[in-house]
UniProtKB/TrEMBL annotation:
Name of the protein in its database record: Uncharacterized protein
Organism: Zophobas morio
Lineage of origin: Eukaryota, Metazoa, Ecdysozoa, Arthropoda, Hexapoda
Amino acid sequence: MKLLLEKTKEEVNYMPKNLENAIKVTDGNMQKVMDALSEGKTVICALEKGPMVEQTLASGFSEYMNAHYELLEEGGDYGVCGCGKPANILVAA
């Protein structure tokens, strides 16, 4: 079995998101995000919508997470981003 981090962009594209059983990470713990993704789980992650995140949202694929992700919510106070800044969006990966 390949870990998510070992999959190609095309292989990751076929992994469905299960939002009902997703793991939610709002404390900036990117190790928890990466571990869950490597187990094939759907992650709802709080992020700060800065230039890098905006670029990733535009492409739909995060090279850092090696996962497709999409915007779920925007404009709230969702916790802490992995960079340590306040998170103003939620994404599903």
